[in-house]
Specification:
It is a single chain. The chain is of the alpha+beta class. The chain has 4 domains: about 45 residues; about 80 residues, Elongation Factor Tu (Ef-tu), domain 3, CATH 2.40.30; about 80 residues, GMP Synthetase, Chain A, domain 3; about 90 residues. It is built from 8 helices and 15 strands. A hairpin with a 6-residue loop joins strand 8 and strand 9. The longest helix has 25 residues. It starts with 6 loop residues before the first helix and ends with a strand. Belongs to the Mu gp47/PBSX XkdT family. It comes from Paenibacillus odorifer.
Amino acid sequence: MYENQTFETILERMLDRVPDGLDKREGSIIYDAMAPAAMELAQMYVELDINANLIFADTASGDYLDRSIAWSGVTRKKATKAQLRGLFYNASNTLMDIPVGSRFAIGAINYKVISRLSLGEYRLEAEVEGVTGNQHFGALIPIDFINNLARAELTELLIPGTDRETDDALRQRYLDSARRPATSGNKYHYIEWALEVSGVGGARVFPLWSGPKTVKVVIVNTEGAPASSVLVNQVQDYIDPTAGKGEGQAPIGAVVTVTSAIGKTINISAKVTLAPGYSLQGVKNSFLERLETWRKSASFVSTYVSQAVIGSILLGTDGVIDYLGLLLNGAVGNIVLTEEEVPLIGIVELGV
């Protein structure tokens, strides 16, 4: 906006106001007196430009972005803690109950038992916020002594932990709400309600799916994967806990069914030409990381798994010079996804 207001331009304007009969050359008294002021004015214009960008939602950042869109009711999502299913066994390898509040560790993350699901089956919550709590499964080490406990393990991610919402994600939600207003129980309203539940990463709505006044909401978690039954139940209770009674967010008369997306397993095989200094296992690990990033972004966006896209991801992996014989689920071609399906990465086999 003020990119033309440079030091040179401002100083030139100032000197133009000085009578020509006076010495205005660089090093003169007039020049040396005006140059510092011109420099400060140029800096002021730089800061004005920055401040102007902080006013508008498309360029604002941080707290300024929060304040610029506060009028709309769209607020930044806070970081949340992961919740997982844990199983607990005694010396006879039989499920046993443990005290709620017991603490366990796995890797560098501690987890706390917050509720009982059934005999020997509990919900645990990470003691740290963010996605790091989503990544650990397997044997748990008890921090507190529990009598008769022989084995404990984390088995399933129930509600993914999330990091604090980024500026780009918040801005996109704001723009979506402006472009596709959620009102009066329209499709966008159901999507908005689903996304208001912590752990939900995406939703699709199917109006009249089972007759008049019926609505089906299909959700994925924030990892872009099928949602757990616990998360599905939370969304159901939030939107329509008692069918059609209007006791949740849905209007009276709307019978809402919330379900999880269906995972479509994609097995991948190919032969690769490795660059010097790279190992096959190292390349495979990098490829898997890139695949997971793509998978999360593809959930409820792509209608098929493109062989060309998978090939591009493979070719863009460090250490891969070329590839041949790329197969998806044992065949050449794309994999079609239904409206309720999301891709899951299955077995990945790379050869040389």
